[in-house]
Design a protein that fits this description.
This protein is mostly helical and about 400 residues long. It is built from 14 helices and no strands. The protein is flat.
Amino acid sequence: MHPYTPRGRAIRHLEGDPATIRRRGTEIEQLGTDMIESAATLQAIADGASGQQGLAVDRLAEVVGDVHRELRLAGELYRPTGPVVRAYGEALAELQPRLDAHAEECDELWEAYLRAPGFREGERPPFAAADADTPEAADQAGLDRAKQAAYDAWSDEATAFDDDYDTWEAAFERAAANVGDVLDGRIEDGFWDRVDGFVAGTLEVLKWVGLALAIASIVIAGPLIGALSAIVAITVLALTIYRKARGDTGWKEVILAAIGVIPFGSLGKIGTPKFVDDVFGGLLTGAGRSAIRTEVSTILGSGSAAFRFSGSGVEAIRNGFSHFARNHGTDGRLVDSLARFFTGKAAGSLGSARPADILIGTWWTHLGRVNTGLSWGTGEGLYSRLYDGVVGADR
């Protein structure tokens, strides 16, 4: 694999089909013209300019309404966009063969450089250098010159690639800028479009927050982590249902979000108020809320005490976080952390937990980690793949 060009670009073939792009530009321009002509016809109907009378014509004019304005606006956007797209296709048709030829030539020249014996100028190590004024030194100098010449040939070709790439990049940016000029200020998102964008961004943030809370629950735990995790999971489910209602996502995402809400470590209590309370992280019962308030009070109280003592906000945050990060059990940090890592439950709760809770919670904990691991770099975790295998990827 050859290195990057002198301007830091990877050397590869240029993608795109110039003929298809040119044809698409012509089609877009023609579509814009057709839209404008159709808008004129609709406006004539709406204005009663057709010369026809009768209830049917009146009803048709009512149905048409102001559609002609929107259609004309779309046509006025499409028609000037077509020539821009076509111009880029013409530039691509000229530059793509040159860039591809440079890429192929660079591959061959680089391979020739690698095969050539000797060293480039200044790269021969001292231990590999022959004594001066000897036949071996003369032979090495000849090999080194040939090696340098092979590299220079590749470098010249790579520079030519850079030059043509600059020309293509300018054509692409010019096309993008011209399309932007055509559309600038003429297309605005509506209220619900802005809401959709906010929801999509929020869901992306909550995915990372949920991952951070899952990791924190292994070591930190406590009722506050449970409540925060529940709030995040329920919020994700609610926003995913909204996206499904808007047609921006499918049932798979809704089902996976719903799975994230279920407290699988409490399935032994299914059908009881305790199970529902676990879904909401303890927020539905007085005892659960009391534990959360106590933990919050401890964290804030510890931070306030540190601030009053030292006068440092940093010390206040550090002291408060130290209380937040403590394990909430009597078995010690190491034992409790190991129990949470292998079973998903605190060491102190294992003695009173039902066997079904321990079994299901342990398996679900490990499946969740497999799901997270498979999701890295792919976006398709274990649960998503199981869903696609059972239900189908298109549903």
